[in-house]
Every structure is written in C-alpha cells, then in structure tokens.
Specification:
Chain A is mostly beta strands. Chain A is 13% helix and 41% strand. Classes of the chains: A mainly beta (294), B mainly beta (784).
Chain lengths: 294, 784
C-alpha cells in the first residue's frame, strides 16, 4: 500500500498542477482511556511487557507526557498452563518508554503457549500467544553497495540466504544491533516478512537498518543519515531473525497501515490480540546471527 | 406466477383492437451526415399513438388505416410532418434537419418533444452530446462522466475522479456500456478523465432507477453510451488540441449511404509537457501517458440487415526510472472492447439485434532492477453474446425479449518474479471462471390514453466453475486445506428472479406521475481499498464465498413541463435496499491477496439509501441548462466493521447542488458555467494516540462520523467560433476551472511538528487541495 501511495502521490504532483496545502482545524471527541500493551515472549528469555495509557491526539508530547503515560501500578502475570510468574517493573533507559514489566521465572520455550493477565485498577486484560520454532538463516554476509558515501569508504547491507519451510504461513520479525553502538536491538528496514511469495524457496535478500530511537526523535527532518542506513567496515552486527505467529505478524503489519485517512485508504485501527485493551502479546522464536564486517 | 401475470397482460393488450391496422416503420436519420437517431419520436396526434426509434434508429408504429398525420421530432432538430393516406404496411425513412443556431429570439416552432413526461422509464436521463460539449471541464477537456456527475442523484467519488455513485450505490454498481460492450474501468489518470472521447459519441443515456428488464447485472444504474456511426455522405475530419490532450477523428462513407466508418484517437502529452519541470526535482524519472482509440464500421447489407463493428482500445501507462540506479517501475492498465452487431428486420414489427462482444480490462504492476523483478497482474475478460428482440404488434404494445450469455475469466492477482536466480510465482491457479446468463421479457404498453406500464421480468443465472482452488485457513492463519475443482466443475451456482415494474400516469398535457419498483442481482463485485477508484481495485466474481448483491429500489416522481416543454421539471423520491455488499476486512491489505483467494479477505453486509431529487432543465432558447438538487442518505450495516454499528457510506453526501448554464451570446460567442456545491466528504476521525516500539500510533474513532468542509466550485467557459465556412470550422474554448480558487480539501493528513526534547512534538491537521484555479485553452477544428 505504501508503494501505491508513493506512486500516486508522484502522479498527483506530476499530473496537473501543484496542489495547495493549508492548515485546517478539526474537532475531535473525547476519548476513553485505554491500556496499551506491548508484550514480548522471546525464546530463551523471561517476559518483557510495556504498559502505557493512550494520550490525546493533539496533545503536544514531551518526555514528561511519556513518563506520565506509563502504567506503573499494574499487576502483570505470565502463565504457561502450570506456573504463574508475576512480573516486576524495571527501569530500562534505552527503551521508549523506559519502563517495562519483567518476568522472573518462566523462560519462553519454542512451541509453547503463554498467557498474559494484567490487572490495572478495575480493569482486567488478558491475552495468549504462541512461540513458534525459530528457523535460522542459512548464511549471512556483508557487501558494499555504495562507495565513498559521505566520509565512509564503503557502506552496504547485510545479505542473507534463507530456505523457507514448505508450509505456507511462516512469518518473521527482524532486528539488528550494532554491538559497539546500539544498546538494544532496533527494527530493520522492512522488519516484518512473510513467506507468501517465497514459500518453500531458497532465496537471498538484503537487510538495511532502520532508525534508532535517537534518529527518530533527535535528528532534524531531512538531515542526511551518515551511513545511509547501511553497515560498514569494523562493525559487529547482530541480526535477529525471529519467527512469529500469524497474529503477531498481523499486528506488526497493521502498524504500517495505521496512518491518516486519505484518498488512498481508510484509516485502520491496529490489529490487537489483547482482550480489554489494545496492543500485542507476541511470541518470538529467536534466532541470532552475528556478522563481523572486516 | 410472475410469468402468468405478464403473459395475460400481453394477451389482453394484443387483442384489444379489431379495426384494420397497418404498420408504418423505417429509420430516422440526421440529414447532414446520415447518422441514425436514437430515441427520435414518431407521433400521430389524432390517434394519439406514438413510438420512438430504438438504438439503431429503427421505429415501428401500428396505426388504423386512413388519413394519417405523422409528426417526426427529436430534440435539437426541426420537426417534420407527413400527411398521407395509410392503406397498407408502409416503410417511411425520414431524415431530420438540425435546428439552426438561434440568434435573437427564442424560437420554438412547434411542440418540443415531451419525452420526459411521456416515457415510462423512471429515473432516466438522456444527455445530448451538444450540451455536454459545452460544459467546461478540467483542463478544457469535454467529459461524459464528469457531465453526468452534474445530474441529481449522481455524485462523483472525489475531486477529479470519474468514478460515480448513483443514488447511494457503489461505483461497481453502474453498468457502463459502450456500444453494448461492458467497460470495467472507465477512468484515465486516477479518474480525472474518463476514457470516452466525446467526438466519437452519439448518445449518452443514464438510467438511475426503474431499470427495465432488458438490462441487468448491476444494482444502481445503466450508462448506455452509443458511438457515432460516421458520416454516411462525405469524408470529414475533426479534432482539437488542448492543454492536457489532443484528439483527432476521421469519418466518412465506405459506400455512400450504405456504409460508413469512424476512427478516433486521443492522446495526452503530459509526459512531454511536464518533463522540463520534473527533471531535477523530487519526482524526476516519473512519466505518465494515456491514449484512446475508437473505431466504428457499419454497413447496410440489405433492406433488412445491417452490420456494425465497434472497437475501443485504451491504455494508461505510468513509468518511473530512478535516475541514480537501474530501478524501474511500470504500471500499465487499460480496457479493450470489440463488438459485432447484426440488426435484422424479420418483419416491420419484429426487429432483432444480435451482438457478440469481447471485453478486456487489465492492470499490471512491474518493478525491477538488476537483481530482481516482480510482476503483479490482475484483470477481467468477458466473452459475451446476446440477442434482443423488439416486437411492436400494435401501437399499444412494445414488447422486448431476449437472452444474454457471458463467459467471464477473472484474474484477481497473478504474481511472479525473479530474485537473482530464483523465480517465484503464484501460478495460474488464481484464475476464476464463470458463466453468467439472463433471459428477459417485458412489455411496455398503454392501458389507456393516460396510463402506460412497463412490466417485465428477468431471470438471471451465474455459475462459478473450475479449474479453481479454494484455500481454507486454520486459527493461526496458516493455510490448512485446499479444495480443488477441475475444469468445468461447478463451484457454486446462483439464480435470481428480477421483476421490474414502472408506470406512468399522464395527469395532463403538462404533467405526469411515475412509479417504479425493481429488483436487481449483481454477480460481479469490485473490492477496493479506497473510495477513489484506483486501477488496483479488484473485480471479483460471486463464488462459494461471495454471494450475489441483491438490490430493490422503489421510486416515485412527479414531472411537470412548462412553456410548451421548454422547461422540464421533476421531483423524484427513491428508496433503495442492498444486500450482500462487500468490503475488505479491517486490517486487510493488498498483499494478502497474493497466494490466497482474495475473497477470503472480505466481509459482507447490507446497505440502504434514500433521497429526494429536484430537477429543472431548460431545453431551448438562448439560455439552456439545468439546476439539480439532491438530498440523500446512504448507510451501511456490516457486523465485522465499525464494531457492528451502522455507519454512513463513504459516498454519503446529504446535499448536492449542480447548476449548469449555457448562453448563446451571438453567432460567434457562447458562454458556459457550472456551479457545484456538495456536503463535504465524510471521514473517520482520530481518537487518541499511543506508543508502540518507540513510535506513536493512532486510535481511530467510529467510521465516517465527521465531515470535511463543504465542496463548492465554479467553472466558466467561453467558446469562440473563429471560422465557419462550408469546408472548415474552427473554434476556441477558453475555460477556467475553479474560477474563484476555492481550496477544496481533497484529503487531510496529520503533519508531525515539533520536537520531543522540547515537549512540543505534535500533530497539525493539514488539508491538501488538488486543483486550484486552472485556466486553459482548447482549439477545435472540423474539416467538412
């Protein structure tokens, strides 16, 4: 859809005369408070659940508003069918928001279902998810596709080869972390993939990195990114190729379509699997590869 | 049951009279070029009997023998009266002369045609091409679809779009016929222009309600467009050069008075025109063009047989070549239609037309660079044959019956590509095959002098057949089962009975009331992601998952003419109920359609619409034009959308006003103006925002509950006839679109402004206006 939007936007510009733009006032109604859940059950780790409240559409946002939006008085419980694990609120400065509820005892295993229960005030939220089996990439390597970009000798993406299992319905979530510079993994460019077109095939594709938090909020719009969202010599890059379930895939996909209603589509609410709230309780079958770029 | 009733009515009417009756029949043509006139009138005032010519110019009227006074008339032409003694079946071919240009006074020589009072068709509007050609439209182009959007009850999808909605129904509910061939996507350039080149057209007829039984397959309307036949008498060329596109038409006799040809071409040069502006800009490397070709051939084989061959071929092509790499994108789409028609006169009362049609619409997306290429293809192909009989046993009955068969082939989405050395594709299994057929019979008859009824029934049939694979998914969304159908095996069959009824009661010389009730089935559907009508919208057949859309419409109207039919006025009220409407599920995106059945991503519901249409039209004189006002409401009910609450359709527009005027100043100059006003389009408002993965997203409110500011616009045009001799005519059309530069919102978006670090990061709503004031000049020429 993004593609169509870009193309038709270009058509409009090209087509007849330059469109004119202006500010407009619109009135919106009051909103109900919702609890937003961003939950991760990654194989080999305990749960990580971010809880926030929604904020007014036109409210100007700063660090204080984000701080206030964090839900810090919730009871968050993970279940695996037998055990119950009550999470603890921890401070984690590199995330936005910088607080999350961390599981203590249940470590996520592949091919397992996990439940989530959240109690905030009088509200109860529940969800379940499934951690699929991770299928590692066949191989990864770096290559340069741009020479002498800015002050860097050569930059390029990380390329991988992968064999998709024969069954239709495999979905993936991609992250990268440059070990020397990134405190946490960030989404790659095009971080959500499915096997619709490549089911059962062995194929190659490129990974470009996505914006870090600092780049999203601290750079001025239009500022050139020094490495053009690529990697370069000397870096050690960790790539996560996480297997996700269909619901988790639909959630991440729906974020892309969640944009203002315009001529090209209708505004979609995100696809959520939280009963009583909005967001995702997602299972991730983690597969990590590290590329040392010489 | 319905059949028995119909049959008995027919019989009653048939055996009504017993005096010696004779039939007068023949063809009505335009004297200057021999074109057949559609809907011209033949009327005998003493016997109070009349008829009108069919789509091939043929009329048939059975009268009591003896002294006869026949009036032949047609709007824009001088009436002819023939006095003679009718003693046997007689063939009378008449050629009518165009009314000369009125200069100083309003001249109304005789009773102007009162077709609107007389006809029994509810909600039918005939648009004269001459009038359409004077309506100023974007960039100086004349456009049929833009012009019909100026009629009450018809609304446009959005600024610039030629998709249209009739009485609250969707854009796929309009049966668009070009010389009997179905056109699936009638838009160029996202709908800013339609594919119809007005120079090649003869008549445009829109039926909004009370669709008679000879039409079917769509719920809301029939837009019947007839191409011109071509000058039977001499070779002519005409054309025009405009801001956006240029056209050229050549026509003439193949054999004088026996056969003729017409060939028309139109192309845009936006690609050349804008290249200097585009180079070096953000959108460098983009190019776009479209073209249309129309062809018509006809030949009179004998007194009883005529053959017509029509064709249309058009393409839009968008291309993008990245100047800095070898990445390129190409998006072509277009329609091709071809039809062969054979008219045969069995007797002077029984006329039959048989048509074979091929229609093809496709949309393609291709992108590639040195490492990969990717193609997506989607389209519809129809093979159609139909026969329509019209039988006029006597003056009171006009019977039509016929049969129609279409073989559809749908390709909702076919994907293929190559990545380095790996090729992938979804194969040919995505095709869907179907048979569609219909049988109909109707009688348009006079019960008495004042009461005329059109009663008919249509029986329709639709069957999806294999080869076809149906995928079913499990709870996690993985495909768990595939049901395969072999070639020709029945997947699903639907049938429908579609009764059609309309009646006209003539209150007086000047007024009548009409009532209509119809039921329609629609077996093919358009699944779209946006209201604009993009070429990426998918045409889908009814299937084991999609049921046919069913519509019922009740309409009632009061019609009144003033000043000897110079003014036509009407008030029409309608109520429409629609079932089995389709929409994409919440969260669906076009990518889902690959490797899955597209109809697995749909959800179903119903809708209703109702409204009032007021209309006043002035047909002759120096000032002509019309004023139309519609108040309407269009609501949708879908269990899976908007949390099951009803919502307004995206095309709901409470108020819609159009004022169209044309004024003949003198022999050289005429002026035109169009003013439109419509309630703003509705949209879904935002509710709140929230944080996921460090980014802000929006919680949206209830569907379509807020409105953008109202849309209004004034267009002006002036036509100057530069030269008019026997051999050559030329004129200039100066036009201004959006004369007072109203900033109509095309869409709104929310712009991120401010910085989080300063606590000012927020959203500012902004509106984008598509067309500000746009002046243009077009030069039109004609070699006679």
């Amino acid at each position: 859809m993004k593609l169509f939007k870009n193309i038709f936007a270009a058509l409009l510009l090209l087509g007849l005369t330059a469109g004119c733009e202006s500010d407009i006032d619109i009135e919106i109604d009051d909103f109900e408070e919702q609890i937003i859940v961003e939950g991760y059950m990654e194989s080999g780790q305990t749960a990580r659940v971010f809880l926030t409240r929604n904020i007014g559409f036109f409210d100007p946002i700063g660090i204080e508003l984000i701080d206030d939006a964090v839900v810090d008085d919730a009871i968050v419980v993970i279940t695996d069918g037998d055990l119950r694990d009550t999470c603890v609120l921890v401070f984690a400065q590199n995330y936005l928001p910088p607080y999350f509820y961390q599981g203590e005892s249940i470590i996520a295993k592949e091919n397992h279902r996990y439940g989530l229960e959240i109690y905030v005030g009088t509200k109860t939220l529940t969800a379940t998810t499934y951690v699929p089996e991770a299928i590692p990439l066949d191989s990864l390597w770096w290559y340069a596709d741009e020479l002498h970009y800015n002050e860097i000798d050569s930059v390029g993406p990380i390329r991988y080869q992968y064999t998709d299992p024969d069954t239709l319905g495999n979905y993936y979530r991609l992250y990268y972390r440059r070990l020397q510079t990134d405190p946490i993994p960030y989404s790659t460019s095009g971080p959500v993939r499915s096997d619709r077109i490549v089911n059962g095939l062995t194929y190659e594709s490129d990974i470009y990195r996505g914006r870090t938090l600092a780049e999203r909020y601290l750079t001025t719009p239009g500022e050139d990114i020094a490495d053009k969202f690529r990697f370069y010599s000397g870096q050690i890059v960790e790539i996560r190729w996480n297997a996700i379930s269909r619901h988790t895939y639909e959630f991440w996909q729906s974020l892309r379509d969640n944009e203002a209603a315009d001529a090209f589509g209708s505004s979609q609410n995100i696809s959520s699997n939280i009963e009583g709230g909005i967001g995702i309780w997602g299972g991730y079958g983690v597969s990590i590869d590290t590329v040392y770029i010489p | 049951m319905k059949n028995l009733l119909l049959l008995s009515f027919c019989l009653l009417a048939l055996f009504g009279t017993s005096q010696s009756l004779y039939t007068v029949s023949g063809y009505l043509t335009d004297d200057s070029n021999g074109e057949y006139l559609i809907g011209a009138n033949a009327f005998e005032p003493n016997q109070k009997k009349g008829t009108s010519s069919n789509h091939y110019g043929f009329y048939s009227l059975t009268l009591t023998g003896g002294s006869t006074e026949l009036h032949f008339s047609y709007i824009g032409y001088k009436e002819q009266v023939l006095n003679f003694n009718l003693t046997k079946d007689t063939v009378i071919d008449i050629s009518l002369f165009v009314n000369s240009v009125v200069t100083n006074e309003v001249i109304v020589t005789a009773e102007a045609p009162d077709q609107n009072l007389n006809s029994v068709d509810m909600g039918r509007v005939d648009l004269e091409l001459d009038l359409i050609k004077q309506i100023p439209v974007l960039g100086g182009e004349v456009d049929i679809l833009k012009s019909i959007q100026l009629l009450p009850g018809v609304q446009s999808a959005a600024e610039g779009s030629s998709g249209f909605y009739v009485r609250g129904g969707g854009p796929d509910q309009n049966l668009i016929l070009l010389d009997e061939a179905v056109v699936y996507n009638a838009s160029h350039l996202l709908g800013f222009l339609s594919i119809f080149n007005a120079d090649a057209l003869k008549k445009v007829e829109l039926i909004k309600g009370g669709m008679p039984a000879n039409y079917g397959g769509r719920l809301s309307s029939v837009l019947n467009i007839s191409q011109r036949d071509g000058n039977f008498k001499k070779h002519q060329q005409q054309g025009g050069i405009g801001l956006i596109a240029s056209r050229l038409t050549a026509e003439g006799p193949i054999k004088k008075e026996v056969g003729s040809y017409l060939f028309s071409a139109r192309r845009t040069y936006l690609d050349f025109f804008l290249k200097p502006f585009v180079n070096g800009s953000e959108i460098e490397g983009n190019t776009y063009f479209f073209y249309d070709l129309n062809l018509k051939l006809n030949y009179r084989l004998s007194q009883k047989d005529r053959i017509f061959v029509s064709g249309y071929f058009g393409r839009d092509d968008f291309e993008f070549q990245d100047p800095r790499s070898d990445y390129q994108v190409r998006i072509p789409w277009g329609n091709a239609t071809a039809s062969i028609r054979w008219n045969h006169l069995f007797t002077d009362k029984l006329f039959v037309n048989t048509t074979a049609v091929f229609s093809d619409y496709y949309f393609e997306y291709e992108s590639s660079n040195s490492n990969f290429d990717y193609q997506l293809f989607s389209g519809v192909q129809d093979w159609n044959i139909k026969t329509d009989f019209s039988y006029h046993p006597n003056a009171r009955n006009r019977i039509k019956f016929g049969v129609n068969y279409i073989r559809h082939i749908f390709v909702p989405s076919n994907v293929g590509g190559r990545q380095e050395n790996t090729t992938f594709g979804s194969g040919g299994v995505n095709r869907q095959h179907a048979h569609e057929g219909a049988l109909y019979a109707l009688n348009d008859f006079d019960i008495n002098e004042n009461l005329r009824v059109n009663m008919g029934v249509r029986f329709s049939y639709f069957s999806q057949i294999g080869p076809f694979d149906r995928y079913t998914k499990n709870a996690d969304g993985a495909i768990e089962d595939t049901v395969s159908y072999r070639q020709g095996q029945n997947v699903k069959t639907y049938t429908g009975w579609e009764p059609r009824f309309s009646a006209r009661y003539r209150l007086s010389q000047k007024s009548s009331v009409k009532l209509g009730w119809v039921r329609n089935y629609q077996y093919i559907h358009l699944a779209s992601f946006s209201a604009l009508g993009l070429p990426s919208d998918l045409w889908l057949p009814s299937s084991d998952v999609i049921q046919p859309q069913i519509g019922s419409q009740l309409s009632f109207g009061y019609f009144h003419n003033f000043q000897r039919n110079t003014y036509e006025a009407s008030v029409e009220v309608f109520y429409k109920q629609m079932d089995n409407l389709i929409e994409y599920r919440e969260g669906a995106s076009p990518n889902e359609n690959i490797s899955d059945n597209p109809d697995n991503n749909l959800t179903f519901g119903s809708g209703e619409s109702y409204g009032v249409e007021l209309f006043i039209k002035k047909n002759s004189g120096r000032l002509t034009g019309w004023i139309g006002y519609t108040w309407s409401k269009s609501i949708r009910f879908f269990d899976d959308l908007n949390n099951g609450k009803s919502f307004l359709a995206i095309y709901d527009r409470p108020h819609d006003i159009s004022i169209v005027g044309n004024y003949k100043l003198n022999e050289k100059w005429s002026l035109g103006a169009v003013f439109v006003y419509g309630s703003g389009a509705n949209y879904t408002p935002p509710k709140s925002r929230f944080l996921i993965n460090g980014q802000l997203y929006t919680e949206w409110g209830d569907r379509n509950t807020k409105r953008l500011p109202a849309y209004h616009r004034l267009d002006l045009a002036a036509t100057y006839i530069a030269r008019k001799t026997e051999r050559f005519e030329s004129s200039f059309v100066f036009s201004i679109y959006n004369a007072y530069n109203r900033q109509n919102p095309f869409f709104i978006y929310y712009e991120e402004q401010g910085r989080i670090s300063q606590g000012t990061y927020g959203l500012q709503p902004r509106q984008v206006t598509l067309f500000p004031i746009i002046p243009s000049v077009t030069w039109n020429f004609k070699f006679l």
